[in-house]
Amino acid sequence: MSGILIIAEHINGAVRDITKESIGAAVSLKGSYGGPVTVAILSSDPDALAASVNLEGVDEIVTVKMAGDHFDPHIYEEATIKIGEQMKPGLIVFGHTVNGMACAAAVAARLGAGFASDVLALKAEGGEIVATRGAYGNKVNLEVVFPKREIVVLALRGATYPMPTNPGSASVRALDLDVAAAAGSMQHTGYIEAPPSNIDISKAEYILSVGRGIQEKENIPRFEQLADKMGFTFGCSRPIVDAGWLPKAHQVGQSGKVASTCKVYIALGISGAVQHLYGMKHIDTIIAVNTDPEAPIFNVATYGVNVDLFELTKELESQFS
Amino acid sequence: MSWGITFVKGWFYLIMSLMLDLGHLALISGLIYMMVRRASFHLPKLNYLRSYRGEKELRPVASNWRIEDWIFMSVLLVIEFTGFLQEACGLIVDQPAWAIWSPIGLAIANTLTAAGMSVDTAASIRGMNWWMHGVLALAFTAAIPWYKAKHIISAVGSLLFRDKKPLALLPSEPKDAEKAGISSIEDFTWKDMLHLDACTKCGRCHEACPARTAGYPLSPRDFILDLRVYNDEAQGCTIPGIDLVGGVIAPETLWACRTCGACQEICPVGIEHPALIVRMRRHLVEQGKMDPLLRNTITTIGDTGNSFGENSRKRSQWTKALEFRVKDIREEPADTLWFVGDYASFDPRNQKVSQTVARLLKAAREDFALLHEGEKTAGNDVRRVGEEGLYEELAEHNVEQMMGAKPFKQIITTDPHSYNTIKNEYPAFGEIAPISHYSSVLADLLSSGRLKVKKPLNKRVTFHDPCHLGRMNGGYDAPRKVLELIGCEMVEMPRNRDNSFCCGAGGGRIWIPDTPGTEKPSENRVHEAARLGGIDVFVTCCPKDLVMFEDARKTGGHEKDFVVQDLAELVAEAIELKSLRLEDLPPLADRIVKAVANQISEAVASRLDTVLAARLASMPAVSAIAAAAPQAVIAAAPAAAAAAAAAAPAASTPSTASPAPALEVAPPASAPASESASAQPVASGDLPTLNPVSWSALKPVQPANFAGYTAPPKDGPRILVTVKHVAKLGDEYGFTPDGRDVRREFMEFSLNEWDDAALEEALRCVERIGKGEVVAVTVGDPEADTSLLKALAKGAHRAVRIWDPSLANADPITIARAIAGIARAEDPDLIMSGVQSGDQAHGATGTALARILGLPHAAVVVGLDWDGSSKLALARELEGGLRHTFELKSPAVVCIQTGINTPRFATMKMVKQAKQKPLVAVDAAGVIDGSSGYVVRRMYTPEQTKAEMLKGTPPEIAKFIADLVRDKKGG
Ligand SMILES: Cc1cc2nc3c(=O)[nH]c(=O)nc-3n(C[C@H](O)[C@H](O)[C@H](O)COP(=O)(O)OP(=O)(O)OC[C@H]3O[C@@H](n4cnc5c(N)ncnc54)[C@H](O)[C@@H]3O)c2cc1C
Ligand code: SF4
Ligand code: SF4
């Protein structure tokens, strides 16, 4: 076993935060687990991205030139295996992202490696990886171990590990890989932008979001009006969009928008699934209203309100009438 | 009246003549009154305009009714007039001595004579008029079957064949019926048709209906008339292009009904509207056409047995606040079994009432017990929603629990809905002990003196008759008697007893949101109560009523006018329940045994301590805790682990023979006393091990080998869908003794929502292609069959369940390996899997499965197009909502994201029928061969930085939030 290999993720010519967070996680593990920390970039122009992963603690950057930039999990898997065979890392790190979900488990199955996804904490005990993940709607945690596995593949939860900010001094090495075996499984056809909207969660300063707890479509106007009266942008969790009650632009979270500039976030009837938290847990002031006293949203909220959201809404309505 | 032939003679004839004369006078007055009323008062109940449906103008058929009504009245009037004329002429001509016995005829005769009519004229008029009157009357009679007056005949039939307990006991569906309920005209029985024909359009039901009053698109009269018109046209055969449900009767109309029975109660010709409505709902339910909230509730009841979606362990949690223990009828006999019902068990306001009722029973020394978690919702409302299959399952369950329980003599309940169903409908499932509503139990206890009134209340109260107690079961008097016995002044609302006005919650409406712009029936009702003036208490004796009227009192603006209270709460006040001591006093024998045990345990305690200390030292500390407290229940909130650790070993030693006093009233072993104790469990024992893997010795994961498993030959494209029976935890749970999982009894299970979307997508594919099959595969214990059956009910053709106890809570690679074993044998053209499972959220099983099988794959798919060929067009959703479109070659593994479709609904009947479909259980012993992805070392409740929980009333909290928001926005 030797070191940690991070497979970088990028989109539109930029490395994604999850990769920098993975670097953060790897670098802090390096002391107990052992280095080197290597970041692999698979891109049509990997050198352009190399600088942004050259962060403090990274030992080496491996660049692999690809034919195109459209993510293909089959090619990523093939490339990862090939890089692995050359570098023989003990730990291979992906993000638990849409792309990561499409290839981390495949790499693990192909190697017979240890595997865990949505890993929220990481440590090494006597050189062995101990990963922590959540279960049962993140009400409990579990520690998983990989006895006798000299290779472990992990997919790390986003917005969980700190990103190193200082530049590093990694060496950059170009690798020439033959991924032909995987080419042709997938034919890229295009991208469809989310429909335009006049609301922008990512720029909103105040957001009032509703989740499945509001129970039915007929209630939407009521909360929308409340948000309006309060001067808040109206947001929601994914199931509200899935059910067709609100357009996609309102969705906060991993597959919606991250509320980057938000100052106050009010969550009504949202349980606090990881993907939702991704879009809002960083916010300074979070007020969560939920009838389940153990709802995970209370773990990130500043203030928790354990009452029926309709009862509270009625009072808020009179406060802001 | 003389008809020219005399067939009766003497006094009898004379009296007859008088009666007939007066009768016809009454009929004429009645007809004139009806005509004036119709012409000048515009009564809503006589108005055929369906304005509640937005109708602006009368439909042609309704205008015809109006014309028909007028012709009917006019012709009848003419017949009557000519009758009297005939009689008068007869009297003028014959001048009989008994003329005075036909006073009206005589008066007319005298008037005519006074006006100068001669005997000859009278005789000739008599001749002509005889024909006219006779022909009119005969024609009127002969035409009866063709026009309005046919209701005279059908009404007799309708009344004759009336159900004894319409609505209280609904008709069940024939066992082998292909489809449920009424969906076309052919599904009506002759009795239904008779009902349709019998309606006299009197409009009484229209007036009484709470749904119509509240502005919902339902008038029981128009419901019947619409069906009649359709039936008249269709003549018993479907008219192509017109759907009965949806076309003739709108689904909104059917869902508006509260099954309160007011319409059938008031109908003079015995029409049974609500039963017809429910039978038509059955069809809607079968089609999955219902309000999403209702659909969720029904699914929840199917999954958990109650409409609150709570773990059944919580059903009797309300008893924990009592000073005494409540028996479990499954363990010890009792005189009375109390069937509590959902609202009384789970709704916080009603739990208080249940506690009061329990204390009242205790104070009266009533020997009672509950089914505790053995009880499921009774199913009264489920049945009235139209989910007949689920109702049957619930009824079977409850009856089985009661029949398997220790002996009891009678059943009581506070819930009129449960009362009705258990009393009238459960006997179809087995022998049912006599059941009483608590209102009559309280009446008996008070009048027999077992509960003594200490402080007559002197309150002015009004009482709401619950439909299911009153109208449906005649329970009008007991609650009134109770109120009288506790010294209340009872003021009736105008609509009382059999004319009571429904709170609006019945028939499943409590699970369907109110339509904006309608008045809640419950508000209408509290206004009625408020108009009585000076009422102190609005009294209810139904858990749902309490919820509805508490709410209506607030929203209707009567918070200052009166309070809403349950009957039992008033009784408690009158007998000064609070002053009574209700703790269990242990019997003498118990006390002696305990005293002895105390002495023994004190004597051995010191020795035990030494032994234990030695044992603990020889074991790893952590496993000692786990091993010594195998049944410990760990509450979610982390608390003093040390305390639990200290207490746990002691709890398993013989010294527990003398339990601490606090435990005396604790529930029996089934609900451990250590419920509130809390500790982080720590894993013990040997962890499973993994196969060694290194870069020099890679071991690609191989599909499990299920040698005995063969798949049937393919007939069209085959889609394999992976499904999971996912677990959800409530706010309280405990870990297994080895500390590596949560104990099963704390989990509620349901079909994983991502897999539900995948299944739907697969079904749509084969439906689009027109052939092929969908095979659902799961890894799970026998209970996972529930989710497989759901998949089969929705349309999957076959199901496979793979299981071995070693697979409990297994990692995604192991699960994928097991499924790959089946997939290899099935050789599918496409595999669909959900992006993740709701409980473990690996988001990895599908991807691992693809790799183990060597197939192309895609994750987080939100768009799919496949015609069964080798080309698969897909769209996956990236972070931020951007969609990436691409193509794969099938066979492939596609992981489906929610939102791609709206999954269909499976009724319990479909689930039952699905039991006929092939479901194969595959033994997976040996699948765990060390090739897993991980080993769980321990599971625990994370110490989290919790939010500051805001305490106070909702107004206070809202104020706090408002201030905070204004402060932040200002700053
Ligand atoms: C790849 C992927 C991407 C995803 N992306 C996103 C994303 O971007 N954003 C997102 O939100 N989700 C996303 N999800 C879905 C996510 O996993 C959850 O399913 C979702 O966030 C749950 O939404 P919720 O909290 O509204 O619903 P639930 O989890 O059903 O929670 C509803 C909550 O309401 C509470 N409640 C109910 N009634 C009341 C009441 N009367 N008063 C107060 N509280 C009440 C309940 O206690 C519960 O906690 C994604 C999932 C996947 C797999
Ligand atoms: S049962 Fe009640 S709600 Fe339903 S139609 Fe009859 S009166 Fe109306
Ligand atoms: S009460 Fe009976 S007869 Fe009168 S309109 Fe209604 S259904 Fe017809």
Walk me through the structure.
The complex is a heterodimer of chains A (321) and B (971). In chain A, 26% of the residues lie in helices and 28% in strands. Chain A has 321 residues and is an alpha/beta fold. In chain A, the strands form three sheets. A nine-stranded mixed beta sheet of chain A has the order 9-8-7-10-6-1-4-5-11, with helices on both faces. In chain A, strands 14-13-15-16-17 form a five-stranded parallel beta sheet. Chain A has a two-stranded antiparallel ribbon with strand order 2-3. In chain A, a hairpin with a 2-residue loop joins β2 (10-11) and β3. In chain A, α3 crosses α4 (98-111). Chain B has five domains: 10-142; 152-172 and 181-289, Fumarate Reductase Iron-sulfur Protein, Chain B, domain 2, CATH 1.10.1060; 293-574, no CATH class; 585-676; 718-932, Rossmann fold, CATH 3.40.50.620. A nine-stranded mixed beta sheet of chain B has the order 18-17-16-19-15-10-13-14-20, with helices on both faces. The longest helix of chain B is centred in the first third of the chain and has 35 residues, at 60-94. β17 (303-305) of chain A pairs parallel with β22 of chain B. Bound molecules: flavin-adenine dinucleotide and iron/sulfur cluster (2 copies). One iron/sulfur cluster (SF4) binds at residues 208-211, 218, 220, 257-263, 273-274, 502 of chain B.
